Batch of 4 targets.
Target 1
Amino acid sequence: MDASVPGSNSSVHDGPFASAELRTLLQRSLNLRSLPADLLPVLQQQPEASADLLAECFERCERLDERERLVELTSGLGLLGLEQLKRRLFKGSPEEAVRCVGLLARLAPEFLDQHLLPRLTRWEHARQDAAVKTIGFSGSRHRARLLQNLAEHVHPYVLPVVIDEIGSAGEAYSAPWLMRLAAGEALQAADLYVRVKAIEALGRIGSPLAVPLLTRLVEAKQVWRWEHPRELRICALQSIAKIEPAHAKQLAASARLPERELALMPMDPQPNTLASGRVRQRRYSRVQLSEPLPLSFSWLHGTSRMLAEVLSLAGGFARPVETPGRTATPFSPLKVPRGTTAEIEFHTLLRRIHATAVVRNTVPHGIGFEMVVLDLDARTRLRQLLAAQPALAA
């Protein structure tokens, strides 16, 4: 493909592109090895429309190089482009406002910090979730602070995602707040799943300040019993291992926690460089199940039987069960919008595992989901199920 903008010679001089043509032009240019020199002048002819289009592309982008190109182009639009993004946050629909959050996190973080919260508190949890995710993958140096300032105000389903994104940002700034949360002294202190998320975030950040607290969580006893649930203790020991491996090895000798379950570690955040590839990072390793695991998927329009083929401690992928000879219309994953909340129940041989999950993506043959509510007994059973898979040892 030629490195010049298709049709740019006539378009630059004869008038602005139609929106469809502008969209096609931008999408083609983003796939080139380098941005054409005459692309920005074309976008500058209609900065408001271009800002909207760049924000839309930013929300959907998957590659780090594409993300950085979109930031560069938006910055090149100047004040008119930035003012358009700010107007969308103030007065646009929820969809338009969410769409501009990522670019504002990069180009006007102080403005976003001041003005996002009043709108976000009025949104349903799916919109809040989308805004948090967009800030998380924006690459903004301020994303940990931005997200921490939202944490007290988001829906309970969104809080675990906020904590995950803060941990992935890797900023020492957040360590004291995460320590209070891990100790049960902040926000939803009674929610053990939220505390586990904070413990894992401390491990991802790698803050030495957290080691004494994490050690107490592993070692604390009440008479002859461990004071804290097994899953919380496992996560605390795993986080210590990321910060002070030698100390974790000493603790493991007396903690009486199964080595195979300890091996299911949260993944470390990838460096925020173009070489690392994708903007959205996995939090946990996926395990290919030796046999598909039956589950019930219950949402607004009913309950469907599915089979989970891939699972992690955070979510997985499941496909509908095909019933030979069934005359009713089969369940189509594509009819389930992204952001849909569903109750999921895994049908294991022993006790079933129940979780509340959010649909992250859909394809014709299945659904990707992330668990946002999961009690610690259920997470322990899920960990044991994954630890027993042959694929884990491979």
Target 2
Amino acid sequence: MKTAILTGFEKFGSYAVNPTKTLTQDLNGRILAEHRIHSMVFSAAPSQLKDCGKEIVEQLLSVHASVIISFGMASEAKGVRVEMRCVNWVENDRYCMPFENRTPIFSDIPIHDVRCVPLEQWDLKAASFRLSAMGMSFETSQDAGRFCCNALMFRVLRALEEKSQTIPFLFVHIPCTEEAIATISDFDRAQKTLIQQSDLPAVVESLLKSYHQ
């Protein structure tokens, strides 16, 4: 049986919960799409993610995982959104602490250096078809933001490079859930998309069926 590393984040800002944490915790140890799930949850603060790439790759090697799928929540996401690139830079005036804002993720490489996910390892058309059949929209993005999701994505890609690992990796943004916005009375429902927490395991299953090595 194959194994999969699944990662999510703790809550941040005024959100009541982070659905990616709930998802990863609920699936930890379960078997989905013929993969045993090994879950990891990280702080949603870029300054607390310094070792996340190494930790994820170490876990990958420890359990002989075949794939890594990381999830983050983005209120502007219109559906399941796959991030294609990330940048060596942190900048988020709303959520970052002053000392971590407008700083490089790594100081030993050029600022604004770019890393791209090798998407040739993924059949995203098949994933899009499966998700569409479940009534979920699918999109790809060239901008993962400059907050914790971008930071984790960059650190994982660099850690994989340093260990000469070609394991398929994907970073996926999902919209908010009702549970996440429970304490936000002015959430702009008219302009933003919500996703059901109960639908997220099916998203994971669809993605696990969509990669090849």
Target 3
Amino acid sequence: MHHKSNRRERRAQEFGEPKTKPMPEPMPDPAERKGFTVDRTLTLIVAVIGIYLGIHPPQTPLGMGLGLALMFAFAVVPALHAVTWLLGKCQTTDDYGNPIHILALLILVSIIAFIGHGIWPPIRRHQLDDKDRAKFEKPLKDQTRDRFTVILSCPSDDEQVCVYGAQYINIFREAGWTVQNNQIERATLGVPYNGIRLFSYVPNYPKSDAPVNSGVWTKITPSLISVYSAFSAIGIEADSGIRNDVPENFLTVYFGPEKDDESQPTDMTRTYGNMKAFAKSWPTSTPQKQ
């Protein structure tokens, strides 16, 4: 036996064969070998997108929506891997119907939505395109009776605001409404306002010595609801005002300087709530205090 063993060893040396064949090392699973690197890369991409959206947020809803969608898409895999790591598993399971994975995705959606709410671009004034005009005109066209005459007004010393408001002359007319003198009137208010205000008729103003939180009663008219709904349809929340130097069947639309965000709820929004609900329950003569 010893002689035979030596012959095998000499033969192995002559032909370059190994004495014993080594056992191959087990290859790591592709998911285990690449998962951590992929997670780190995707997490870095998500961080870069988030920083970019925070520093240079897109100024259009479409641009912001695409940015948030990309952020979500790149964050899905890291989120699922994070969940499995927290659960103490070795690798991410392919069972995407797992309730834990569904919960992780819901949390991710909530986080993305929270971020989007904080940096979503505000509604800015612009020349209305055909789509915006159609949205604006629909509530106006839906009201076929008891339409008030519209007075368009703007500050006497702000040409840019007047130019913006002037585009609504033809928009109201195309919807079948009457605009006084087919022009926008320049006005100087004792108390200037930002944003857009809808002034309704009142017989008398509050007394000069009346408490600050007091007011007068005004009617909720179909025209007031329709014009408010028209601006709301294009993302602009108008506020309310009163005047008594015009006939009762006149409604003044005053364009003040632009607010930082025209979509922010106003006192009129909070007072009247859902204007569509009022429109469905019309007619009513219930007055509202403002």
Target 4
Amino acid sequence: MKICFISHDSGLQGAEMALLELAVNLRQHKGHDVHIILPSRQGGLKERLDQAGINSTVIPYKWWMGSDKQVPARAFARTLYNGVASARLAWMLRKQHFDIIYSNSITVNVGALAAFFLSIPHVWHIHEFAMFAKEDFFLKFDLNENFSYRIMGRLSDAFVVVSEALWKKYKDVLPKEKLYRIYQSISVRTNNGNAKIDIPAGERPNCAVVGKIQRGKHQEDAVLAVAALARRGIFIKLWLIGNGDSCYIQYLKQLIVEHDIAKQVKFTGFVDNPFNTIKQMDFCIICSSEAFGRVAVEAMLCGKPVIGAKAGATEELIHEGFNGLLYEFENAEDLADKIMLLVNEPELSQQIGNNAEVWAHENFSVSRYIDEIDDLLRSVQQAFNNRSRSNYQ
């Protein structure tokens, strides 16, 4: 099968890493011919695709949704821009005879439009809550919300959502019969990427929050929890791993100064391969309401306990006291209590980490994920072919 993937971004965040792993494994394990369309050469994904031997092409296009209050003129301009980009994409793909176009994010619609122009199946892989308030950065469609969902339903043959939390959100706005919940696979990489961070010998405990530093990720919960623990006479080292919004980073630094915890909170900047760093930690913290929770699974695969916010998909990944702990979303004092539990009971922490590693390997394997995606793609293609033959007759 020949599959054209559409990436919403050219960076190396969670959705892009998921796309890279999916493309590589579909080619290696199922023999599919894969090609990826990128909106830009910047960000690192193009280089990683080249290294993996995955063909890719850059065609500029824009999101059809944003995180701020939309300016009508700008939204209209993006709509026109994407219409032209979709036609250009369809023109480029028409001689290559792709079987399916596969959009890797709800934030871009050029793949769905190109599939319509070419009369081939389209699959939408949704990694975001979108439109559901603070659960995912207040993303809003440029067009009317209900109209946008109707377009999605008409232009797509299947929707893959990455968690049960997402399935519950989208089942009322997208055709339920086209909606499939498939957990992605995650592979641990320890032999490449940035060098390990420098942790002085004997300096314990260490914990990390991994991911883009921005308001929607709620890293302030972890910073305030460190401050609360310091007031109780418990001192831990918190590593904030990732780059992000400069205004929010400045806000976090102000909190750090206000609470006099500068020696306990460190910013590492972007780390290409977080696994080498996670392995040095005693535990990891997930402060945000996640649509999937890739970082939580990455930490589990490293045998580390995870303390996660009781929100979004994190609740379905963490089984309290077995493979992690949950704290009340946006409640730093409750997070501090859960950190204390792991610090004061190292045997419990070790057992949770061991359970987490086994559970993550069992539930997020490459073979299971690729089998499920491959079955879906073949089913979509078969159903589309049957409809086409029926219409022809």
